[in-house]
Amino acid sequence: MSDNRDVGAKSVKSWKKSEHHGAGEWLAERGTSLVLIPLTLWAAYAAYSIAGGGFDAAIAFARAPLNAGLIGLTMLISVWHMYMGVKVIIDDYLQGGLRGFSIFLTFLLSAALVLATGYALFVLHQGA
């Protein structure tokens, strides 16, 4: 009977790397969630304020430096939050080389989204 408890205890010990493992990631996810609350409220207000104005109104809105900065910040924080969430899912359910490759692909997608947003804002302001 003691053998079964030892085997269970060993598997739990090998699974649990440390008491603080993942605490930083958990705090970062919660931090980005908190930062996204006012940014999301701003985005909803912005969408409401330019609704019905057409393409020109949207371009004029995004050309304003404050709005462009908030758009960039919202995308950056949102993509970072998405990356951390998907990474946690991958860490929980995948193992081995597939895990590392999936995290790499998630990073590439995240980087592409941030770069595309930055490029779009840059091009938009070059035409101003």
Automatic annotation (TrEMBL):
<dbReference type="InterPro" id="IPR034804">
    <property type="entry name" value="SQR/QFR_C/D"/>
</dbReference>
<feature type="transmembrane region" description="Helical">
    <location>
        <begin position="103"/>
        <end position="124"/>
    </location>
</feature>
<comment type="function">
    <text>Membrane-anchoring subunit of succinate dehydrogenase (SDH).</text>
</comment>
<keyword id="KW-0816">Tricarboxylic acid cycle</keyword>
<dbReference type="InterPro" id="IPR000701">
    <property type="entry name" value="SuccDH_FuR_B_TM-su"/>
</dbReference>
<dbReference type="GO" id="GO:0046872">
    <property type="term" value="F:metal ion binding"/>
</dbReference>
<keyword id="KW-0249">Electron transport</keyword>
<dbReference type="GO" id="GO:0016020">
    <property type="term" value="C:membrane"/>
</dbReference>
<keyword id="KW-0813">Transport</keyword>
<feature type="transmembrane region" description="Helical">
    <location>
        <begin position="66"/>
        <end position="83"/>
    </location>
</feature>
<comment type="pathway">
    <text>Carbohydrate metabolism; tricarboxylic acid cycle.</text>
</comment>
<feature type="transmembrane region" description="Helical">
    <location>
        <begin position="35"/>
        <end position="59"/>
    </location>
</feature>
<keyword id="KW-0472">Membrane</keyword>
<keyword id="KW-0349">Heme</keyword>
<keyword id="KW-1133">Transmembrane helix</keyword>
<keyword id="KW-0479">Metal-binding</keyword>
<dbReference type="Pfam" id="PF01127">
    <property type="entry name" value="Sdh_cyt"/>
</dbReference>
<dbReference type="InterPro" id="IPR014312">
    <property type="entry name" value="Succ_DH_anchor"/>
</dbReference>
<keyword id="KW-0812">Transmembrane</keyword>
<protein>
    <recommendedName>
        <fullName>Succinate dehydrogenase hydrophobic membrane anchor subunit</fullName>
    </recommendedName>
</protein>
<dbReference type="GO" id="GO:0006099">
    <property type="term" value="P:tricarboxylic acid cycle"/>
</dbReference>
<comment type="subunit">
    <text>Part of an enzyme complex containing four subunits: a flavoprotein, an iron-sulfur protein, plus two membrane-anchoring proteins, SdhC and SdhD.</text>
</comment>
<keyword id="KW-0408">Iron</keyword>
<dbReference type="GO" id="GO:0020037">
    <property type="term" value="F:heme binding"/>
</dbReference>
